TrEMBL record:
It comes from candidate division WOR-3 bacterium. Gene3D superfamilies: 1.20.58.800. This is Uncharacterized protein.
Length: 122
């Protein structure tokens, strides 16, 4: 019985909501600036993808899956620090996935090359 009380007291101390709030309040400015920077970069990437889609004459109803493809490529190249042959291989796998979902491979290749600067293997 005393062991249960000690564990509960330890848990209550550890999960003190005022302490957690104070910690998060201290972290919030940095969290907000990192989030805003990431969203700015992602928005710029989305705009580049939309420019490619406009140039290729893609219907606006298909923008969402192409934007998802562009965001996945962006995440691979920018956030996961994949480069070189590994990045090309991952991009090829993504391209095949989205092609299987009905997207045009020429448009996918254009997004890959023009937006993310990933040259496909011949």
């Amino acid at each position: 019985m005393p062991d249960k009380m000690r564990r509960f007291t330890s848990w209550s101390t550890k999960y003190n909501t005022e302490r957690i709030k104070a910690t998060l309040d201290d972290m919030r400015p940095d969290m907000q600036s990192r989030y805003q920077a990431a969203m700015t970069r992602m928005f710029a990437n989305d705009m580049k993808v939309k420019q490619v889609l406009n140039g290729k004459g893609v219907s606006t109803i298909l923008y969402v899956p192409y934007l998802s493809f562009g965001r996945q490529l962006w995440k691979l190249s920018r956030e996961q620090d994949i480069a070189g042959d590994s990045l090309e291989l991952a991009a090829q796998a993504l391209r095949l996935k989205w092609k299987a979902r009905g997207l045009d491979e020429d448009v996918l290749l254009a997004v890959q090359k023009e937006v993310c600067s990933i040259q496909p293997e011949p």
